[in-house]
Design a protein that fits this description.
Elements: E1 6-11, H1 17-26, E2 32-39, H2 45-52, E3 56-59, H3 62-67, H4 70-77, E4 82-85, H5 94-99, E5 101-106, H6 120-129, E6 134-141, E7 151-158, H7 165-195
Parallel strand pairs: 1-2, 1-4, 2-3, 4-5
Antiparallel strand pairs: 5-6, 6-7
Amino acid sequence: MGKTSINIAIFASGSGTNAQAILDYFKGNKLVDIKCIYSNNPAAYALTRGKKFGIKTKSFTKEDFYKSPAILAHLKNNQIDLIILAGFMWLVPTQLVKNFTLLNIHPALLPNYGGKGMYGHFVHEAVIKNKEQQSGITIHYVNNQYDKGSIITQVTCPVAPNDTADSLAAKIHMLEHKHYPETILKVVEKLLSESN
């Protein structure tokens, strides 16, 4: 007998709008059990969002994440199958990459505008500075390098001549909140079919 549902952990560093979109999308879905929201920032609003949904939350230090087995043990104790990075800014250590399937979303069309330091407004400012005609999102698997995991899907949007980093960010957020949960569901279905 294979699995009937997939246990998910969400990692977020900030306000957690993507985490919110994922929580809303999977509410009542029997294929997914969101077990915990983790953050490297104890003040992250993403943790508050999790608590409002009755989901366990956990914050951790750099020491916990990179030098201690505590996070790996916590994930295994919760029988996590899939880790979703939703605005999580740290490079994931190899021990997590080896043990779990991880997904991330990037606010640009990789391989362009990726790598260390390329997140949030830094990405949108660079896209506008280079007068790109389109930007978008990339949803990809995670390996032990920033933004280098294999790409699952990309969705584009036009960059208007009068766009600012803020207006482009608003377009990108709309794409993220629609397409990230849908792509997670496809990966969940794939994991379930592989387990059977």
